[in-house]
Design a protein that fits this description.
Structural class: alpha+beta
Largest sheet: 6 strands, antiparallel
Distance between the termini: 32 Å
Low-confidence stretches: 97-104
Mean pLDDT: 82
Strand order of the largest sheet: 2-1-5-4-3-6
Number of domains: 1
Number of strands: 6
Length: 113
């Protein structure tokens, strides 16, 4: 189960999945309020990823808790920051996505045509 690190400093623990097994991409977009999700693999826990808003810089509110966590995990540079809510989850909990590489993976929101 995932934990949501909110910009107000609260942590919403044990986020329930709609199907009970994996987050769909629309669920991730809704939880993070974004259209591009970046997955950052945690160095100390390679089975976990930090999902963030790829386009959050300068648009979303600064997330101190997620920034401290990401810096501690060495998934962002010491002078970088996380903006918007962030989600810590197991990589196996993400539906239909390739495993993230060392640089992180960006998953765009799919649109119906």
């Amino acid at each position: 189960m995932a934990n949501l690190l909110k910009v107000d400093g609260t942590i919403k623990k044990r986020i329930q999945l709609e199907n009970g097994e994996q987050f769909s991409m629309p669920e991730l977009y809704a939880l993070l309020h974004c259209t591009f999700v970046e997955l950052l693999p945690l160095k100390q826990r390679p089975d976990l990823v930090l999902a963030i808003d790829e386009n959050g810089h300068g648009v979303r509110e600064f997330n101190l808790g997620a920034t401290i966590f990401a810096r501690y995990q060495k998934v962002i540079a010491p002078d970088d920051a996380i903006f918007g809510d962030a989600l810590v989850l197991a990589s196996r909990e993400i539906q239909s996505s390739p495993p993230p590489d060392d640089e992180g993976a960006t998953l765009p929101q799919m649109t119906k045509e």
